[in-house]
Amino acid sequence: MSLSIRRASLASLGLAFGLSALCLSPLMAQETKPAQPDATAPAAAPVDPNAVVATVNGETLTEADLRLAEGELSQQFAQLPPEQRRAAALSAAIEIRVMAKKAVDSGLDKDADFQRRMAFLQARALHGEVVEKEVVDKVTDAEVRARYDQEIANTPPVNEIHARHILVKTKEEAEAIIKQLDGGADFQKLANEHTSDPSGKTSGGDLGWFGPGQMVPEFDKAAFALDVGKYSKEPVQSQFGWHVIKVEDKRAKQPPAFDDVKDQAKQAVIRDKYFAMVKELRAAAKVDIPDEKLKKDVDTLEAGK
Hints:
- The protein has helices at residues 63-72, 82-105, 112-135, 141-154, 171-182, 187-194, 217-225, 258-284, 292-303, and strands at 52-56, 59-62, 159-168, 206-210, 236-238, 241-252.
- By secondary structure, the protein is α+β, with helices and mostly antiparallel strands.
């Protein structure tokens, strides 16, 4: 029950580090650290990117080409054993080359729709290069730390409470339990005997520590209104039934450690730098949208970024 009445919250770390819903580029989708090599394993021999791994119709495929194929097709090869992925990538690269040659021989590369698509893909790839080289690679540790410190300073203090509850089906049952508490009955004992929350039957209704917004609204409001050591004098109704709540303790919620959220802080810095660059480039660009309604919609969208 302690899980079922909690609200799923992406803000549980207490920092507003969410990125824009817009994806900056494919390279931003996987901002994870590569696996660290085994320190005991021998160092791999350096690979010449220009070394030829295959020749297809007289055209060479190099180690650099193979590495690119492995990266671009990594999701397709994810289920393969590591020792098979290199061969699978080369097989796929050869397949792409022979099919591409057939397309050229058939004149498909001259098709207007294909050329438009190619132009878009090239522009998108260049967009990604700018993001990587001019934004991501230029973010410094000092900027990330400064963003973390800024978010901590701007986050209002939040209290957490440690509470217990007894959940029953009817208001009358809850009122009867409150009457027993008024008579000196032990809250934990009553919780073990009466609560319909499975996790509370052996813990005295213990919900642990939680902050504002983590419980359903009715429960949240009632719990945070109670003083330490007090229980609700009136039953509290929620979608789960009727609650009797007791607050065991309160404390100031500690902000997350820098190391725990530095990746989110870095994403926030990247986001800000990206949109600042876009704003500057858009201001310098000559953009004409003849359709007035479409222009208005685009302007509204841009203003919200």
